[in-house]
């Protein structure tokens, strides 16, 4: 029978997954919605089951990285895992409230580091360094690839820019929906480990059960709290036509798929915003809302620092109380 602290860990992990589901609606369906290929309600209804499926069947590698690859030495206690998830959930929810896309992965990783240092755990700095390299490389890589692809597409047919020519609209709309659907599946595989990895740390569930349980939380978050951030990314960050929106979404999904295939996670928001910026700059830079872009970039710097500080402070408090 599960103890009270086990139930608290499960509840917090599900709440964290719920918060993440809402947090990444813009990263997955923002481009399809921005282009008018699908409305907000239908976008969320499409995204939720695909997110759950990705978490259930394709999250094992990244769950293993989170569950066993960040801390070494003594096993992580349920109390430590609960503290980690509680910190990450609180910070992610705070960013959701101000509609500011950030990296839940970075928040989670540095919450692990903060709590682990306070508890005297040995941190696997080499794994964390590799994760940070992947996260840091994703936005500029996405921007460069999206820039080059957009410039190439603009010059492919008859030497002029192709925007929303009537003959191409149905095909582009279909491509956008396919790209958004793929990104939704990848989000489940990539991000559920932020919550369900705690189950692996504490030895509560196996990989499939942990992924499925976390996937339920993600899907519920998409449906119940996903609208505000989806609108923020879709309508306030970069003005894109359907073609460049499809380029941005496909570039983002491709970069994250490559990361997941090697057992590493990266930020969907960072990859997408980088790709959006690349397409905007390829069109002369006028499409980029620089104020919103700066605020998002600032949040990327704040996320890891806030995760580290809150995790360490929480861990110190629990050690002082004799609970860890």
Written as H for each helix and E for each strand, in order along the chain, the element string is HHHHEHHEHHHHHHHH
Largest sheet: 2 strands, antiparallel
Strand content is under 5%
Mean pLDDT: 86
- Low-pLDDT regions: none
Gyration radius from CA atoms, angstroms: 19 Å
What is the number of domains?
1
Number of helices: 14
Distance between the ends:
22 Å
> What is the topology, as strand order, of the major beta sheet?
1-2
What gross morphology would you assign? globular
Structural class: mainly alpha
Strand tally:
2
Overall helicity? over 70%
Describe this structure in words.
The chain has about 325 residues and is mostly helical. It has one domain (about 5-315). It contains 14 helices and two strands. Strands 1-2 form a two-stranded antiparallel ribbon. The two termini are about 20 Å apart. The model has no long low-confidence stretch (mean pLDDT about 85).
Task: Describe the structure using short key phrases.
14 helices; two-stranded antiparallel sheet; globular; 324 residues; 79% helix; mainly alpha
Topology (SSEs and partners):
Blueprint (H helix, E strand, L loop, with lengths): L3 H20 L1 H10 L5 H19 L1 H9 L2 E2 L5 H20 L6 H16 L2 E2 L1 H32 L12 H23 L1 H10 L4 H19 L1 H10 L5 H20 L6 H15 L7 H32 L3
Antiparallel strand pairs: 1-2
Helix pairs in contact: 1-5, 1-9, 1-10, 2-3, 2-8, 2-11, 2-12, 3-8, 3-10, 4-9, 5-6, 5-9, 5-14, 6-14, 7-12, 7-13, 8-12, 9-10, 12-13
